Amino acid sequence: MSAPTLPGTSREEFLRAFKRNLSAHGFLIGAVLCFSFFSWYPMVREFLLAFQKTEGGAVHWVGWDNFRYVFNDPAFWQAWRNTLLFSGLALVLGFAVPFVVSIVLNEFRHAQGYLRLLVYLPVMMPPVASILLFKYFYDPGYGVFNRILEFLHLPAQDWLQSTDTAMVSVVIASTWMNMGGATLIYLAALQGIPGELYEAAELDGAGVLRKIWHVTIPQTKLILSLMLLMQIIATMQVFVEPFMLTGGAGPEGSTTTVVVLIYQYAFSFNQYGGAAALGLCLLVLLAGFSAVYVRLSRDNEN
Predict the structure, then answer these.
(1) Closest residue by Cα to residue 240 from 144, 140, 137, 129
(2) Exposed e or buried b for every residue in 134-164, given b needs 16+ CB within 10 A?
(3) Alpha carbon distance 120, 181 (integer Å)
(4) Bridge-partner residues for 92, per DSSP?
(5) pTM above 0.90, yes or no
(6) Mind listing the pLDDT tens digit for each residue in 181-200?
(7) Cβ distance 167 to 255 under 8 Å?
(8) pLDDT tens, 245-257?
(9) What pLDDT score was predicted for residue 272?
């Protein structure tokens, strides 16, 4: 015989479950509302604004005129060239340097926690503080970098004032500011590689470079692919570094990126429709990279 159910027990359990689920749904609804207001609504508003124009306080549809205006602007193509140049240089430094640093850190057996903190420290600094620090380094008169060149008997450089070095200077600052997170991710992936693979490679007479090429890279191939896509998405949206280091445009527009041009359209030229059209172009491009990233992430889970 089953034990008799105490009066009110089922009702109390129902109330407890209802309160517990109500709290969970309350937090979920709050998160969805915040995400809708700060993410979905701006995207929908941008899509509508890309096909609209405001004149005299009245909004009317203009079709593809905003896109024609953007495509016919010489600054549009220059901004895309600068963005691709920044992404390429940032990947050469920002993708390779953290991986090399993580390999070096992985070889340390002592003080590894302190070294991880040291590498991640620039990420914890406010971006404004980091950029102001690099503006001091790049100063043509008393900057640290020119002092180093002077010590080496090399000619001083106009780091941020020259079209030849402005973009490289922005990339160096951006790499230093953001490499800490990628380094720790790579380091976690390296520490998951079985040590037997390296021992087998040593028995076969493999040196350091051959072990990296035949063991380290194949074992971290997926995380390298994911980080590559994430860095492409991040570098295509660069804004803070060129805006604060060179005022956005830089010498002869050499550091004007796509996001900087969007800012100029909206807040310097009052061309909100052109800014929305350019933002929509960037959104479509990054959506393609994001789809590839999601696909690779699913393959990693499987």
Answers:
(1) 129
(2) bbebbeeeebebbeeeeeeeeeebebbebee
(3) 6
(4) none
(5) no
(6) 889 999 988 888 888 888 88
(7) yes
(8) 988 788 888 899 9
(9) 87
